[in-house]
């Protein structure tokens, strides 16, 4: 029997070295990450909202919208996908439906957080969080809702900005006790807080490297030495793509053409390879051949 996406992700999480997790916002970006040799993907709620709706990470994207894009990302490659499900979109009942919906879309795991609904980016100001009791209900609901026991549950706390580092560590340990497979303390503001999290949380840890955000961007080997199991770069690829788009548009506007951009573009063959043109042409040719063979055999 084939391994489920959750089982595959768990195998990667069980290794000694940390899992490097790139955030992707579309099936095309998922394909590029696969071709680059990554082993797993993160469907970033913030990035998908930015890319799909052109809107900020303020809880503006609906559950079904995010699940649909996450499912397309999961379908695009054989890689397991950890999907951001924000707050779970309500109380324990909403969390139950959300987890089942995302699982039906083929993801390997889900990440749920303890902000109020609607939430906001973990590196924005003026965040608010629910009580520990309410978040524990969300975590228990997520654990109970999964049909595949290998579906990975990640519990995130944004408590540092609201209640301080000690509360964040307490919450992280509670969420692990409730059944979260990984815990994610968002937006630590110093290396000292990163070390305190690693020392104080008795569960596998995920950390998010946000360039320009609240958390210092450290080298993967330093984070690994602290004990982080997953190193997430949630929106680095999106931001690089935006920079490339800005460059292309400015040059096109200024020069009226693309001659000065040719050496910066992916080549025509590289573009077609990323979307698997040859595979689709092969399907087309095979179907045409089968139809022609049957037609010729009948002699019509």
UniProtKB/TrEMBL annotation:
<keyword id="KW-0456">Lyase</keyword>
<comment type="function">
    <text>Involved in the methylcitric acid cycle. Catalyzes the cleavage of 2-methylisocitrate to yield pyruvate and succinate.</text>
</comment>
<dbReference type="GO" id="GO:0046421">
    <property type="term" value="F:methylisocitrate lyase activity"/>
</dbReference>
<comment type="similarity">
    <text>Belongs to the isocitrate lyase/PEP mutase superfamily. Methylisocitrate lyase family.</text>
</comment>
<dbReference type="InterPro" id="IPR039556">
    <property type="entry name" value="ICL/PEPM"/>
</dbReference>
<protein>
    <recommendedName>
        <fullName>2-methylisocitrate lyase</fullName>
    </recommendedName>
</protein>
<dbReference type="Pfam" id="PF13714">
    <property type="entry name" value="PEP_mutase"/>
</dbReference>
<dbReference type="InterPro" id="IPR040442">
    <property type="entry name" value="Pyrv_kinase-like_dom_sf"/>
</dbReference>
<dbReference type="InterPro" id="IPR015813">
    <property type="entry name" value="Pyrv/PenolPyrv_kinase-like_dom"/>
</dbReference>
């Amino acid at each position: 029997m084939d391994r489920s996406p959750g089982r595959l992700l768990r195998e990667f999480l069980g290794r000694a070295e940390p899992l490097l997790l790139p955030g992707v916002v579309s099936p095309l970006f998922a394909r590029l990450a696969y071709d680059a040799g990554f082993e797993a993907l993160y469907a970033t709620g913030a990035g998908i909202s930015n890319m799909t709706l052109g809107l900020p990470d303020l809880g503006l994207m609906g559950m079904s919208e995010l699940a649909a894009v996450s499912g397309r990302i999961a379908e695009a490659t054989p890689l397991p996908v950890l999907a951001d499900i924000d707050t779970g979109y309500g109380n324990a009942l909403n969390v139950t439906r959300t987890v089942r919906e995302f699982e039906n879309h083929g993801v390997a795991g889900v990440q749920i957080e303890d902000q109020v609904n609607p939430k906001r980016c973990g590196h924005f100001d003026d965040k608010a969080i629910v009580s520990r009791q309410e978040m524990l209900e969300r975590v228990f609901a997520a654990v109970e809702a999964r049909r595949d026991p290998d579906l990975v549950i990640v519990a995130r706390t944004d408590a540092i900005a609201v209640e301080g580092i000690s509360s964040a560590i307490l919450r992280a340990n509670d969420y692990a006790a409730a059944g979260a497979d990984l815990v994610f303390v968002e937006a630590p503001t110093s290396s000292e807080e990163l070390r305190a999290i690693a020392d104080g949380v008795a569960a596998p840890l995920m950390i998010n490297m946000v360039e320009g955000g609240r958390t210092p961007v450290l080298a993967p080997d330093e984070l690994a030495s602290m004990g982080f199991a997953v190193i997430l770069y949630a929106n680095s690829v999106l931001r690089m793509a935006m920079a490339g788009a800005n460059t292309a548009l400015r040059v096109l506007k200024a020069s009226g053409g693309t001659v000065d951009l040719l050496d910066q573009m992916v080549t025509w063959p590289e573009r077609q390879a990323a979307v698997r043109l040859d595979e689709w042409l092969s399907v087309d040719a095979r179907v045409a051949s089968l139809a022609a063979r049957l037609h010729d055999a009948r002699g019509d």
